[in-house]
């Protein structure tokens, strides 16, 4: 039985990578943009304890490039005065962000006087020449940016490429799009019909998309980019990805009925599992692991990599092999943290919502814990040498991330 378990785990991991290859292949050619001038657009910006100067930069660009009728920034009481002074007088600043992002967005919804709404995070803003499509519900593409380290630049580039695949590529294949929170466009009437943003969930954007799917509403794609700041360091990235992994499983539990009609969407929402499935296969490999399963896995990974670079070329996104290696190492290193987050969500254990530090409020953070355990993975291969490739991929990833974080800490002190 054990050999079958290891092979099955690795085969499922291969399926995730092959799906990724399909997304990238479908996204290889950029779309033709369609412009639609909204007669009545409000922008909502939740900003819990965010850097006021970064917030001002984002809001000014939003106003300049979208010219919305209404801009509502929802902050916390502690930050209110500083935020109010930093923003243009026409921006409506209210409190409520201290009660959670969904509660903040629902407060802004209550104050909205327009027919359409767009939501932006405090660090995000539309690119120059941003175009909109007429749609009751739509997702913008994401373009990562970084003002910090080479690590941050690598994450920014891969963020852009992943957005092209997971939003545009999936839409081209006819799969339901899950609009990410920043840059989402929605008709006010539809949002109210869906009951507003769900409070008490970790990823309110995913939950909204599944509520819309249950109501028979599929999201379109805005053929322009929203710029979003990439996490500067590994600790921030792990916190972000763990939150997303937890929130996705939480949303799945709340909307099982919708996903029975869209099985691909279930795989999309659980794609973080591709980081830890090979690890579990490695752990069970001493009892036996088929070389065929290993070959299939690495063929799937290579196929996804091939089409991702092809998509990057089509969209003129600068992603180097070094960028891909850095982000791959990060994903494998946080595999235990991701698995823990998904198990907690499955069991209904509470996860505290934390803002990913941005702007001047970013911090390096230690970020190392379970990663060190992965340095022991080569020992598993002593019982089954065939699993050595899996053992080495986790060992090298963990070693790279551990040394990098320790180096950041030395520079910090």
From TrEMBL:
<keyword id="KW-0472">Membrane</keyword>
<dbReference type="InterPro" id="IPR050321">
    <property type="entry name" value="Glycosyltr_2/OpgH_subfam"/>
</dbReference>
<dbReference type="InterPro" id="IPR029044">
    <property type="entry name" value="Nucleotide-diphossugar_trans"/>
</dbReference>
<feature type="transmembrane region" description="Helical">
    <location>
        <begin position="390"/>
        <end position="407"/>
    </location>
</feature>
<keyword id="KW-0328">Glycosyltransferase</keyword>
<dbReference type="Pfam" id="PF00535">
    <property type="entry name" value="Glycos_transf_2"/>
</dbReference>
<feature type="domain" description="Glycosyltransferase 2-like">
    <location>
        <begin position="149"/>
        <end position="301"/>
    </location>
</feature>
<dbReference type="Pfam" id="PF13632">
    <property type="entry name" value="Glyco_trans_2_3"/>
</dbReference>
<dbReference type="InterPro" id="IPR001173">
    <property type="entry name" value="Glyco_trans_2-like"/>
</dbReference>
<keyword id="KW-1133">Transmembrane helix</keyword>
<protein>
    <submittedName>
        <fullName>Glycosyl transferase, family 2</fullName>
    </submittedName>
</protein>
<feature type="transmembrane region" description="Helical">
    <location>
        <begin position="276"/>
        <end position="300"/>
    </location>
</feature>
<dbReference type="GO" id="GO:0016757">
    <property type="term" value="F:glycosyltransferase activity"/>
</dbReference>
<feature type="domain" description="Glycosyltransferase 2-like">
    <location>
        <begin position="43"/>
        <end position="129"/>
    </location>
</feature>
<dbReference type="GO" id="GO:0016020">
    <property type="term" value="C:membrane"/>
</dbReference>
<keyword id="KW-0808">Transferase</keyword>
<keyword id="KW-0812">Transmembrane</keyword>
<feature type="transmembrane region" description="Helical">
    <location>
        <begin position="368"/>
        <end position="384"/>
    </location>
</feature>
